[in-house]
Structure formats: C-alpha cells, structure tokens
Amino acid sequence: MSVTVLADEVTQSWPTWARAAESIDRYELALTLLDATPDVDDDVTRAALLLQTGQPARALALLAAQGYGDLPDVAQAVWPDLVLGACRAAAGDTEAYRWLMACARRFDGAADGWRLCYLIAAAAAGGNDRATADQAWHALVTRYEIITPVTVAEFCAAQVAARDPYDAMAATTTLAGVVADLHVTAALERNPAPALRTASALRLRGDDAGARLLLHGVRRRIRSNAELDAALADLTPAAPMRRHRLLVVVLWCLAPLLFPLGIVGGLLVLASRLAWQRWVPIPGLNRTDSVVWRAFQSLSYDPHTDPAEPPAKDQTGYYGAAALLSLLFVALPLGGPTAAVVGFGRAGEVGTWLLLCLGIPALAFLGARQAHREMRARRHRRRREAEQRSRLSQARRCHCWQVPSTSGPFAVEYYRHHLHHEPLPMPSPVAASLGRCPTTGALWLAVDADDPARAVLLRGTPQAEPEPAPGMYL
Q: DSSP readout, 288-319?
C-alpha cells in the first residue's frame, strides 16, 4: 500500500477512532482525535465530551456557536437539545435540570437510553445531586451492562459512599464486596488503575475516608505496589498515625504488668483491648470506619491465594488435628523403642520422649499447613495459566468484524499477536502506532500499546470496496 493511500485512510479514520474512544469512555482521547479533524462538523459530540470532562461552560459556548441556545418543548427534544439541557444543568441551571429529567421520563425504555444516562450523571453531579448521579451510573452498569473503567469506578464509588455509617458489620461487608469486584476487574498489583480511579471518584465527592478504606482494603490482599502505597499515604494523616501506633506499642508493653493478677489480669487486658477498639478511632476515621479499617488490617498478603477470592478460612484446627494424629499414631508408638535404642539412662529416655512428642507433632502441623498452601497455590496458578491461555487464544482470533475498540491487557495481546504493524504516515495528536488486521484489512490505532493499564485499540474506517465491473454478476 502506498504512503498516499495509507495517509488518506488515516485521515478518514480520525472521526471513527474518536467515536470508538468515546464508546469506552476515553473522553480526553476522543476530544484529541476529533480536534485532529477540525473540518468534521461534530460539535454536538464535542460538547457532550466536554460535559463529561467537567467543562460545561466550554460546551455551552460551542453549542451557542452552532445556534443551540433555547430548550424546546419536552415532546420535541432531540439529541442536541438533550446535550444542551445537560450542559446548562451542569452549569447550575435548575430549570434546565428539571427539563432534562422530564425528558428522561419520555425516553425511558428507548434503545439508546443509555446515552441519556451519561448526560443525567454529568448534569446531576454538576448540580450536586449526587443521589441521582449514582442512580444513573447504577443503571448504566446493571441495566445496560456497560462496563468501562469510568462506569466501574463510579459504580464502586457509589457503593462505598453509601456504606452504613452506624453498622460496622454492614459497612465492612460493603467494602469487602467492592474490593473483591475490583480484584476481579484487574490484577491490581500490576494494574492498579481501577482502584486508583475509584478512590479519585470518592475524593471528588468528598469521601476521603471511603477512599482511604478502599485503598487499604485493596492493599491488604496484594504485595507492595508503589502507586497504591503513594495514594494511600496521601490520604493518611502521618503524624497522628505515628502517635497512635506508638501509644498502642506502649500499652502492649505495659500489659505484662497485669499478668501477676492471673486470670483477672488476662481479663483486664482483654477488656482493655475490646474497649480500645470500640471507643478509640483510627486517626482521620470515625468509629464505624475505624472498625472497617481494623477488619482489613487483620488480613495480610498471601502469595498462595488469589486476591479476587474471599480470604482463606483459618485452617488451624485441621493442622492441629494432623499434629494430634501424628502424636497418637507416630510419636507415642515410636517413643518406647526409640528411647530403648538411644539409652543414656533416665535423662536420655525423657529427652527422647520430649523430642518425639513435641517434634513430630510440630513437623506434622507445619507440613499440613505447607501442603494446604501449596494446594491453594497450585489451584491459583492453574487458573491464572488457563486464563492466560484463553486470552492468548482469543487474541489470535479475528475480532475486527465485531468490536470497534478494546482496551486493557487484551488490547496488548491483540496488538502483538493478531495485527500487523503499519508505519504512521503523518504526525499524530497522540503517541500511537498503527496495526492492520490480516483478515479484514481494518486499520487500528494503538495507544499505549505496551502498557496493560492504559492500552487502547480503536478500529478505523473500513476501506471502500471497489465498484464491480459491468456485466460481472454472480
């Protein structure tokens, strides 16, 4: 293919790539790609994208330049009018907001009703009607099954923000569910973007405590991650937390002073611990959120488990049973004959018995625990390997005739294993490369193709088919 033909195809594809970016809620990227083709008359789409990026004033100016300034009757509203109403509502116009919500009732049940949900979410957020915005995001995820990084982040943020402020158990259950959903969405230790985006959505709505709890819960199930650690540190009051930890250490150091009181001293230590956890909050958190924080603090990273699964149940009882069985059926039967063989008198017999009766059960306990961990690790490893094989198998197949865009780790694999690289024949407004489908000939724009957290593939405009020659019919 000549450079000129490829350049024409790229020029024709900029608007298509912009629409594909919009379909996965990459608003800034879509705006950048639209600006690459200023001759395309699509200012209504530009206005909708500006609204989603929090720029309703710029969107209104753009619409005014196209002659959109007054809202028609609800029965006559079309898409440009809906965008105009949403922009005005996001800018603080309460009358426009009421008009938009009336239109929502009219378009409820329409095939493209999901488009209006995006407008309502932006308008409600701009007008500080957070409850309605959350309902719109909930509808996009559950009713229309639109799963993008933006919808997932807003949906999860709404769940965290709605946690019960008085029931610690219910709040813990809510946070645990959201954390599990995020771990299912992505391998957060390698791609923390979903958790960071959800935390940012919580901070935008003023729920710094919720963002802190979310990141804390995510971090307890995975190994150290620099981005997550930095975000969590930014939300944590450092000096008060240091004082809190120091006070906890001092109190635990004083606890042995009560041991001479016997069982009474032990009960006093236990009562003091329970009272501390109930009445002394974590710095920066209220009492309910402090209980949630402490519940996640009891978890720890285990390389043998999958963080997307619930924490493994405590199997200490089974390990103890293995130790007891080894004592009854191994250590005790071997004690007498072994002591007789070893000799060294009474002291040798006692030492042999102690060594066997303590050592063998201890080894059985540790061996049972290690065997159980290895079994979980093998199951986790096999599942991950099966997922990787499935992803590679799908990436080698042609999906260009089905999907206009893809993102995340699958986009990286699809770009590497299915598309053929093409040179970019002109300057690009974004750092990107081109890929050609060997089956359909579709031209794809690859943005951040080597980064699983940010990779995006956008399908371009199909090449025009040549006109058939006269008389050549099948």
A: HHHHHHHHHHT----TTS-TTSPPPPP-HHHH
- Write down the pTM of the prediction: 0.79
Bridge partner residues of 436 (DSSP): 420, 443
First to last CA, the chain: 28
Type and span of the H or E element at 88 = helix 79-90
Distance CA 100, CA 105 (A): 9
Three-state helix/strand/coil letters over 195-220 = HHHHHHHHHHCCCHHHHHHHHHHHHC
Q: How many CB atoms lie within 10 A of CB 263?
A: 7
Q: Are 216 and 236 in contact (CB under 8 A)?
A: no
How are strands ordered across the β-sheet holding 456-459? 405-407, 456-459, 443-447, 432-436, 420-422
Number of H helices, E strands in the chain: 20, 5
DSSP code of residue 397? S
With contact defined as beta carbons under 8 Å apart, do 438 and 8 qualify? no
Residues 6+ positions from 284 with CB-CB distance below 8 Å: 208, 209, 212, 235, 236, 237, 240, 241
Q: How far apart are CA 104 and CA 86, in angstroms?
A: 11
Q: How many Cα atoms within 13 Å fall on the side-chain side of residue 317?
A: 2
Report which of 158, 73, 82, 84 is spatially closest to residue 117, judged by C-alpha positions: 82
Mean pLDDT for each 10-residue chunk of the chain (474 residues)? 81 90 92 79 89 95 91 92 96 95 87 91 93 95 92 95 94 93 83 92 94 94 88 92 84 71 72 76 92 87 68 73 84 76 67 80 87 82 81 88 88 92 87 92 92 88 50 32
Question: Smallest Cα–Cα separation from 17: which of 460, 465, 462?
Answer: 460
